[in-house]
Write a structure and sequence with these properties.
There is one protein chain. The protein has one domain: Peptide deformylase (Peptide Deformylase, Alpha-Beta Complex), CATH 3.90.45. The longest helix is centred in the C-terminal third of the chain and has 17 residues. It is α+β, with helices and mostly antiparallel strands. The chain is globular, with a radius of gyration of 18 Å. A hairpin with a 5-residue loop joins strand 8 and strand 9. Helix content is 25%, strand content 30%. It binds ligand GNR and nickel (II) ion. The site of ligand GNR has 17 residues, from strand 1, strand 6 and helix 2.
Length: 188
């Protein structure tokens, strides 16, 4: 297992269209386990193979939801009491994914991207969809998705086509985001 370097804009490799996986071999299993390690380390909730420079149609996702069944830790700062729960690990792998039946209804999430660090913006996408994908053994599955999972898989699918979330913004907002990213880099 190894943490791999995450490519950032304006790396031209982020614009390539990724190729289908044809060999469900040990090299693929190593890629997937390295992608999980890289994603958890970042940390992020999803990662496409091209973000570590591998132009293959492979996605990993773990929304890492709070485990509200587990014992929480009561936290009180500024007189505002709330409970922190441990996160549940729910690692998911999608190979050669296809989006089916995207809903007409849209949902808006504030998105970020490990390849566009420290920039966040609202993006509208179909609120629900179906995904057809293969697992590490090459078996095909289909699943209905909603909420953050539907948004995340569409964000990751875009990476496979060389598209970033900032490409969904108006030109004005995209230019503002790129300017902000340049400023943040100069400051660092
Ligand atoms: O970590 C991530 N968070 C996120 C938040 C809202 C919508 C999409 C994402 S994916 C992102 C990780 C990433 O860049 N995946 O490609
Ligand atoms: Ni991303």
């Amino acid at each position: 297992m190894a943490i791999r370097e995450i490519l950032e804009v304006p790396d031209p490799r982020l614009k390539v269209v990724s190729e289908p996986v044809t060999e469900f071999d040990d090299e693929l299993k190593t890629l997937v386990s390295d992608m999980f390690e890289t994603m958890y380390d970042a940390p992020g909730i999803g990662l496409a193979a091209i973000q570590v420079g591998v132009p293959k149609r492979v996605l990993v996702i773990d929304l890492q939801p709070e485990d509200t069944e587990a014992e929480g830790e009561v936290c009180n700062h500024g007189g505002h009491e709330h409970v922190h729960y441990p996160v549940k690990k729910e690692p998911r792998v999608f190979i050669n994914p296809e989006i089916l039946d995207p809903a007409d209804e849209l949902a808006t999430y504030q998105e970020g991207c490990l390849s566009v660090p420290d920039i966040f913006a609202d993006v509208d996408r179909p609120a629900t969809c179906r995904v057809r994908y293969q697992d590490l053994e090459g078996e095909t599955h289909e699943e209905d998705l909603d909420g953050l999972m539907a948004t995340c898989i569409q964000h990751e699918m875009d990476h496979l086509e060389g598209i970033l979330f900032i490409d969904h913004l108006s030109r004005l907002k995209r230019n503002m985001a790129i300017k902000k990213l340049k400023k943040l880099r100069e400051a660092a």
